[in-house]
Design brief:
This protein has 201 residues and is α/β, with parallel strands linked by helices. The chain has one domain: Vaccinia Virus protein VP39 (Rossmann fold). Helices cover 28% and strands 28% of the residues. It has six helices and seven strands. A seven-stranded mixed sheet has the order 3-2-1-4-5-7-6. A hairpin with an 8-residue loop joins strand 6 and strand 7. Helix 1 packs parallel to helix 5 and helix 3 packs parallel to helix 4. The termini are far apart. Bound molecules: S-adenosylmethionine (SAM). S-adenosylmethionine binds next to helix 4.
């Protein structure tokens, strides 16, 4: 259970939020490397998952907030041929075998982990993401940017340095700070957007 469990049950804004700009970027990058199987980690009500599925990817969408998944289920596009699955699970212990995804998309999850265990939790999610990516697979990540203490107790913002995951076999190919569209539809959602490639040495 996390704070989103309540939001998804009560906040109507999550139902009408447009897809993020990051999802469009991810679709372009995933296509360049012929990625087919994509995990949307912390998918919420699925706004970005649906877009990625409509772009032809085979999308597995996972979240720990059951209320969000119920909303997602009610919003699933009816177009034929859209390949999309919803999974209730925890990003800290992902229910998939090693190297089974070509790409992982993760918008707005990592800043949700709060002190005192946030460093270990972020490390564990990144280890899991790295484990699930095939060699040369891609991670597209977006996380709120700023002073780590400024958003507490709700979120822990990330500095540029905190977006380095080289120790986990994820080489940063590109990192940009910009305003995206958050999952409640706000367009002043300042994020680091990172593109990482899994490199097995
Ligand atoms: C800021 S919302 C982003 C939702 C979605 N990516 C979007 O942009 O619409 C963060 C999401 O992370 C999910 N979450 C938080 N902790 C999680 C965990 N341990 N495992 C999986 N999902 C988690 C929340 O339930 C919520 O849906």
């Amino acid at each position: 259970m996390n704070r989103w469990t309540g939001f998804y049950a009560e906040d109507p804004r999550v139902l009408s939020a447009p897809r993020s700009l990051c999802s469009e970027y991810a679709a372009v990058e995933f296509k360049k490397l012929n990625c087919r199987f994509i995990l949307d980690l912390g998918c919420g009500v699925g706004r970005d998952s649906f877009y990625l599925a409509s772009e032809g990817f085979n999308v597995f969408s996972l979240d720990s907030a059951y209320t969000g998944l119920v909303k997602a289920q009610s919003l699933v596009p009816t177009d034929r041929g859209v390949k999309f699955r919803l999974i209730h699970g925890d990003a800290l212990a992902l229910p998939f075998p090693d190297a089974c995804f070509d790409g992982i998309y993760c918008f707005g999850l990592l800043h949700e982990f709060l002190p005192p265990d946030c460093d270990q939790a972020v490390e564990q999610v990144i280890k899991e993401a790295s484990r699930l990516l095939r060699n040369q697979g891609l991670l597209v990540l977006a996380v709120l940017a700023g002073d780590p203490t400024a958003g507490l107790p709700h979120v822990r913002l990330f500095t540029r340095k905190m977006t380095n995951f080289e120790d986990y076999g994820l080489k940063c190919m590109e990192i940009t700070k910009y305003h995206d569209i958050g999952c409640t539809g706000s367009n002043n959602y300042l994020v680091w957007r990172g593109l990482y490639q899994k490199i097995i040495k």
